[in-house]
Amino acid sequence: MSKITIADLEVFYCVGVSDEERAKPQRLLITVDMNFDFSSAAIADRITKTIDYFQVSQKLLDFGKERNWKLIERLASEISDMILSEFQPAAVNVQVKKFAIPQAAYVAVSLTKSRGGSGVVKRAGWGTQ
Description:
There is one protein chain. This protein is α+β, with helices and mostly antiparallel strands. The chain has helices at residues 19-22, 39-44, 53-63, 72-87, and strands spanning 3-15, 26-35, 68-69, 91-98, 107-115, 121-127. A 6-stranded mixed sheet has the order 3-1-2-4-5-6. Strand 5 and strand 6 (121-127) form a beta hairpin. The longest helix is centred in the middle third of the chain and has 16 residues, at 72-87. It starts with a strand and ends with a strand.
């Protein structure tokens, strides 16, 4: 299966356990891997035959407006659900990087979800990449 990747998209969302941490948007990096058979797009050279990664990135840039999350785990899950629902990949892996610990380069969560035959999430798995 082929894959479309958006790597380290910089977004500003309100995320944090405390009210103070969620009070203003903070910088996060989001990586999205979408499993999608784009062989027909490669042959036809038509955007309508694939996932428009520009549209996905715009959706992600706006995803945090007037919303907040306590955990980046929840955020990764909601992003995965949105991408599966709106862009229809066979599977999606979402990684969210947060810069919360000064002594660490970043903290990250990674979540993979895939579609079943009925179009619903078949499995979800947590892990790091």
